[in-house]
Amino acid sequence: MKDMIEDRAGATDRPLLTVEGLAKYYGGRIGCEEVSFDLYPGEVMGIVGESGSGKTTLLNCLAGHLAPDTGRVLFDRAGQMVDTVTMSEPERRMLGRTDWAFVHQHAHEGLRMNVSAGGNVGERLMGLGARHYGDIRAKAEDWLGRVEIAADRMDDRPKAFSGGMRQRLQIARNLVTGPRLVFMDEPTGGLDVSVQARLLDLLRGLVREMGLSAIIVTHDLAVVRLLADRLMVMKSGHVVETGLTDQVLDDPQHAYTQLLVSSVLQV
Amino acid sequence: MSVEQIAGEYNFAYLDEQTKRMIRRALLKALAIPGYQVPFASREMPMPYGWGTGGVQISAAIMVPEDRFKVIDQGADDTTNAVSIRRFFEKVAQVETTEKTAEATVIQTRHRIPERDLTEGQVLVYQVPIPEPLRFLEPSEVETRKMHALEEYGLMHVKLYEDIARHGEIATAYAYPVKVEGRYVMDPSPIPKFDNPKLEMAGIQLFGAGREQRIYALPPYCEVVSLDFEDYPFTRMRAEHCCDLCGAEESYLDEVITDDAGGRMFVCSDTDFCGERRAAGHLGPLGVAENAA
To answer: pLDDT tens, B150-162?
Structure first.
């Protein structure tokens, strides 16, 4: 395979995702630039920064929704690092249905609003060839239970769900095929604080239980404090600081990070 | 040759030669890739969209003076749509028309496949309102084309899943999605699912959607599989009745309300089939023998 750079099978400490020199420009403007990092299996990385700092652009480039202008995004597939930027579109879409998952900020972007909750969860299974109604339904029910949606709401459409339930449904829909890497774009945005807390609790449980790797984009420092192992701070399309979450939040080095941390309201 | 004579040999059957060429090319491509929707430059026809403009254009493009033409609407030869399209071709192409399925070479149809098996050499032309089977699940044409190209058909089963979840069975009764030659998922136009097994036939089947500007086709003896689940297999559906006029037990029936006191009768939706049976002496519970009438 031409995208393969080297076979590192056997190494236990090899990264799941390697990003090298990623850049995306909108005409003359910088979307994001010179982004490089490694993400290891089971690790959760937070990307924080103000609006317009390039967080979402970066996430969309990583997840294959946007084509980056330069750089490589290498993903570990069966022991081989393949470049997801240059791989064919069918392969990339296949990754998006199997090993990857994407949780949108607005649940309605990630859900089919006119399809029942069970159908929403089952779609990825059917997309991978599941053709047994009973099995699909049993699996959907199991996953709805895991995200705390009662079984009797299974045949309701997401339109009849609250914001928090929709977000949980979106998570179930994404995790049902057992992905290895989850991209999350402001997963708690637009939810009230108590619902946020419950969702975060749920996410933390699922991530630990399934050994998921995740990249979480947010401007909410509390979210990364709870979920992320590592943190990347972005400003004007550049990464200005990286480090362990507690280290970055408790002892910020860069002026912007200091500003960000001190801007959080204390109750 | 005079100009009139040459003109007489050109422009047979309403459409100009360039248009026919364009449509025939689309038809050839459609036959080469069974189930694939080929875009074509649909023309304005002297009838409104939804009245079979796609089917009429295909019929006009393939018709030769020796053809015998039949039009059915919901199986019947005598409904407005069928009568006006038949008259149209009588007028603009002077082709012979017939109501007999066995005698026709080109049959234009809306919502039914004739009961009588078609033979090699016969062509069935369907009028299609919405050619895209994924349309009501995925509104984006860009996305649905991509899904066809990459064979991502999981969504089609989501529709069937929803049917079972809500109705306890696959409630889709018409326009039941099929997979053609193991590749393309196709909308067989709004025929009842009773007719789905008949899509594997000896005749050529051409599908024309005028407003949506798509042509697709099934060559003879093409493999056509109705989608289903392992534990909810595809089933044909038919009213539990026999035809009240001809007594047929196997044909697709229409329910006809006869009064406002709950009276009703079931009759074959295929009028030619029903008429032939009655002429052969078959009689249903409410039928009247032909010579007695």
So the answer is: 999 999 999 999 9
